[in-house]
Design goal:
The chain is of the alpha+beta class and about 270 residues long. It has seven helices and eight strands. The longest helix is centred in the last third of the chain and has 25 residues.
């Protein structure tokens, strides 16, 4: 590696560290901090449910027994990961969570079919005073994740600059045209096919993993969500999952990756034939 590349790598590492440090300052490390302290150490406030229907609600409490109450009724008790399947109407519901330090709320809202892929409850879905701003989303985390990916992509392009100069310009132009066309085809009626059978599994596990990475949470218990699906697919879906409670942004990220893969086929085909 020459001197310029080494400098670029150092700058990129410093920029990534700065972004992660800034994220720790501006995003709540513990979503429960959005609730207020109540009697007997309980966290109390409101929990916004985006849709009516069956919910899987629960918590992870690795260091002691915990109790989750919704609308004044205890619904889940125990230690470790505990859940119950319950039906609620859309809107805010009173929540009281009595748990030791290090516990967190988990859920699986209606509209996501993979019953085993619990999700961390985002801070935007909790409120001490009943006011909510874009509940179900973690938009700042989505922005930080996109910036980190853009930083890595920019570094990769810079380090590969000599190889890029040797590219056949006609092949590169053809690849660009194919990629743009493929992206346009995917983006038209992006959700027209409906929810695929394992889309929510990638979405839910990926969302947890992106949150873990940005929070610098590398504890083994935080990385146990879904071992079956490819990690890149989960991370791609997880970035989009920070931006909306639905699948639209995650599908757009997938569309971009598929379009880039279609463009890559031009170079592969040219080399083969």
């Amino acid at each position: 590696m020459n001197r310029r590349s080494a400098i670029a790598l150092g700058v990129a590492i410093a920029a990534a560290a700065a972004l992660l440090g800034l994220r720790q300052l501006v995003v709540e490390r513990d979503p429960l901090d959005r609730l207020q302290s109540g009697a007997n150490g309980a966290r109390e406030g409101s929990w916004f449910f985006p849709r009516g229907g069956p919910y899987i609600l629960g918590f992870e409490s690795p260091h002691g027994d915990a109790t989750l109450a919704i609308d004044g009724r205890d619904v889940v008790r125990g230690r470790g990961i505990q859940t119950e399947r319950l039906v609620y109407q859309a809107g805010p519901h009173a929540v009281s969570f009595t748990a030791p330090q290090g516990s967190r709320l988990l859920w699986h809202p209606p509209g996501r079919r993979g019953a085993g892929e619990l999700e961390y409850v985002p801070p935007s879905s909790l409120s001490a005073d009943g006011s909510f701003d874009h509940p179900g989303t973690s938009r700042l985390d989505g922005m930080f994740a996109i910036l980190l990916v853009a930083l890595a992509a920019g570094l990769g392009l810079y380090l590969a600059r000599d190889a890029l100069r040797r590219f056949d310009r006609r092949a590169a132009a053809a690849a660009g045209i194919v990629a743009v066309f493929a992206l346009a085809v995917r983006l038209i009626d992006l959700g027209g096919a409906g929810q695929t059978w394992d889309e929510d599994v990638n979405w839910s596990a990926g969302r947890n993993y992106v949150t873990n990475g940005l929070a610098l949470d590398f504890s083994p218990a935080s990385w146990t969500w879904n071992y079956q699906h490819p990690p890149v697919s989960k991370y791609a879906a997880g970035i989009g999952a920070q931006l909306a409670d639905g699948y639209g942004p995650a599908r757009a990220v997938s569309a971009l990756l598929i379009a880039l893969a279609c463009g890559l086929l031009v170079f592969i085909g040219r080399r083969l034939y």
